[in-house]
Amino acid sequence: MTSGKISQTVSHLSFNRLLGETSGAFADLGTFLPLVLGLIALNQFSPKGIFLGFGLFAILSALFYRRPIPVQPMKVIAALVIAQGLTPGMLQASAMLMGIILLILAFSGAITWLAKQLSQAVSVGIQLAIGLQLMWMGTKMMSEFWQLGVGAFILLFISKFLPLRYLAMPLVIAAGMIWQASTQTNLVTNFDIQAVTAPFQLAWPTSVEWTSAALLLVLPQLALTLTNAVIATSVMAQEKFPEDAAKLTPKNFAISSGLANLLLAPFGASAMCHGAGGLAVQYHFGARTYLAPLIFGSTCLMIALCWGSHIAWLLSLIPMAILGSLLTTAGLQLAWSKRLIDGKPFCIFVILSTAVTCLAINAAAGLAVGIILEQGRRTWAMLTMR
Q: By CB count within 10 A, which of 69, 89, 190, 262 is most buried?
């Protein structure tokens, strides 16, 4: 092969890699944007503070992990704040309390001990449940305009079999924005964010907000954070990047999430975490290195510093159905595992039992059921060997 052909091949590979990193950087918008825009438009929270928090968290995660470790809102906290119209102080208090709890669990060794109790079957069961929940949320968002949402999902799904698969996601988003602008239909997010100009909120929660946040927001969120944002993310990250397994630990994910919430919430940041679903969809669309979170974080910082009616208008052009197709794709990538096909009968039983319990009750109950079943299997194995 001549030097010219070698140079052309290297350039082609570099372009595809950059395209994959850029595509993967924004692959988790289906989870990110609806919750963030809801906090801004429906609760009048500071867009500058929220985007600043995500920007700094993503950039620092990129520099430390050197892998496409996602950052996203804590779903339960954000959803409850939006649905119940809670105050910025309660959101800040919940984020800081989650930060303190995560740091205590990390440095005490409790999170490492808990992770060791999880077999692969339990982890797959939790991921299956969370993936199905994301798919359900995605389909509800797609129902805003079924034809657009289903068409986008089909294109995203079949793109994995095409040579230029990393182009699919940005093209789908761009096409949706062009369609939205040209038709002027109200199928976006049902959020009016163009008039929101709230400044940075340098406030401190009141004693009542601390207490209310602990009871109403932190307790429901904690189990999901420990299972999905810490343990499941670590398991998935170590599977995809085994050479970096020593850094991609539950302890490190708990520390990075804890510090981000504790230090950035006083400046108006939302409650934030990592997430297995975000990692699955970012990897699916081509993210392999720190460039993906670095691109995402830099974009969030730019939005925070330049927030105005024009940026709000651009964000409002992304149709809800398109976001739903991204969220459904993320759920599918998270839910699927080869263990569902080639696993041993008892392994599949543990997976399904864990998943069903997570869906029927919550992630904490599913975690407990999975651990009990695995401990029972180990005990039976030891007794039969005697």
A: 69
